[in-house]
Every structure is written in C-alpha cells, then in structure tokens.
Write a structure and sequence with these properties.
Structural class: alpha+beta
Number of strands: 7
Largest sheet: 4 strands, antiparallel
Helix content: 25-40%
C-alpha cells in the first residue's frame, strides 16, 4: 500500500505559544474545527485555532504532517465516520462538504514536507518555526 500524507495532532512545538494545548492523542488524525461565530479569524478564541481529533473529538492547537499506510478512500471513510458520529447529519450536502474538507486537509499535508508542524489562525494555516 502506498503512503498517504495526513495531518495528526502533535506535542511537537507545544508551548511555543502560551495558550497551546493538546487534549487529543498525540498522533491522532485531525479535522479542522468550525471557526467561531464572531467571524474574526484572529479573535484568539480556541475555535479559531484548533484541530479536532477524529477519534477522541478533543482538540489540539498543533498538527504535524506524517506519512501513513492508508488509501485516500480509507482516510475519507474515517473522516466521514468521525463527523457523523459527532452528530453531523448524514445528508448529501454534508457528505459533499465533509469530502471537500477532507480533500483540503490532504492537499495541505501533500504540499508540506513530512515533519512540518502547523497551526491555525481561522482559515489560515501557518507553519511553525523550527
């Protein structure tokens, strides 16, 4: 099986910002949490900063690019299942949105070298300094 670049929660660089946290498991596949209702990408609230673990549904402020033995279809299945289990309604519209979100994260991971640690500021993804 070929390797797939994905984003996982990471403890690497935690503490770089004073408000960093890792509540999900280190190495857990992540999704992007919906932004806050204020609509301000730099408001500083947790919703504008976090990734959410697909299994634990807990948050982290950092994610890392890794390669794993997984197909795109397996990744999409896991991503969808996590969101449906969290209470997202299984509708055609939501399936389309979920798939677009998953592909967006795969594209981000594919553009960065393995080992890159990233953070979020709203919709903006920022590489952390080494």
């Amino acid at each position: 099986m070929s390797k797939l670049r994905v984003l996982v929660a990471t403890a690497r660089t935690q503490g770089w910002r004073p408000a960093d946290f890792l509540a999900c498991d280190d190495g857990e596949l992540v999704a992007v949490t919906t932004g806050c209702e204020r609509g301000n990408a730099r408001c500083g609230c947790d919703l504008c900063r976090v990734f959410t673990g697909l299994e634990s549904r807990k948050a982290a402020t950092t994610a890392e690019v890794i390669e794993i033995a997984m197909s795109v279809d397996e990744y999409l299945t896991e991503y969808r299942a996590s969101l449906f289990e969290s209470g997202v309604a299984d509708t055609e519209h939501n399936r389309s949105e979920i798939e677009a979100s998953a592909h967006s994260l795969l594209a981000i991971a594919d553009e960065l070298p393995v080992g890159t640690v990233i953070e979020r500021l709203g919709e903006e993804i920022i590489e952390r300094s080494k």
